[in-house]
Amino acid sequence: ICRKCCFKEENVLCINTFLSSFSGFASVPVTGSCCSYSSLAWAFQTRCSISAPWNVTVEQRRQSSFFNTSTADELWKGALAETGVGVKKGRGKRRKKKLRKNLNKGQEIGEGRSGFLWPGLNAPVIQSGRVQAVTQRKKEERERIQSEIVQQRDTWEKKRKIKVKREGGWSGKCWGGVILDPPDPAPNGETYEDFETRVIEVKNVFSMKAKEGRKKSIRALVAIGNGKGAAGMCVYK
């Protein structure tokens, strides 16, 4: 059987249903060999006002790999174990957390391991007054470009996140005693610029859940006042 010309009977029946929904259109015959569907092109050309050749070539599209059937988000969820029974029940919560990597960083449109130069993508269309054709880089140049891309990705991963400097607390890096910004203005326009907000206590609280296991939360005690008799406090978890 010719795979390129193979046309499933179900697809033809769907087309027949589509054509029969319009008045005056007859169905396309299904009988015949796998290469005798030139009548399908004739039906589209005469009845649907579509200009098409007489010979129809239908090509099957199959995924060459499992990784082409899923999106990048679904593949990352499987690799990082973000979903499943183990995550819901708190399994492996003390292991080193894996982070997602943006594999598109450093990748230019048209560039690949084969090293082809595509005019209009990674090469100029016209050079020295002549239209350029598709060419391929030399092996040494391809290896150099790939090594540069890998080196760029390594440097991006090693970059540390910028930490916002804050005033120290009562002892070391403890949150106790840290001064925060004043509260936001009230809806009626009142401002609290003369108020001072200070963290009194921050501690971790652990609780056991039936499905999630040991769950961690943070409890904070914050006090605010203006030194003129107005003060308040808040506990947030």
Automatic annotation (TrEMBL):
> What top-level branch of life does the organism fall under?
Eukaryota
Sorted keywords for this record are: Mitochondrion, Ribonucleoprotein, Ribosomal protein
Domain S5 DRBM: from-to ranges: 195-235
Protein location:
Mitochondrion
| Mitochondrion in keyword set | yes
- The Small ribosomal subunit protein uS5m N-terminal domain is annotated at 65-184
Its primary localisation, in coarse terms, equals mitochondrion
Q: Under the GO molecular function aspect, what terms does this record hold? A: RNA binding; structural constituent of ribosome
Identify the GO cellular component terms for this protein.
Answer: mitochondrial small ribosomal subunit
Q: What is the annotated signal peptide range for this record?
A: none
Q: Name one GO biological process term.
A: translation
Q: What PANTHER family does the database record attribute to this sequence?
A: MITOCHONDRIAL RIBOSOMAL PROTEIN S5
Membership in a protein family: Belongs to the universal ribosomal protein uS5 family.
Task: State the protein's name.
Answer: Small ribosomal subunit protein uS5m
The species is Pelecanoides urinatrix
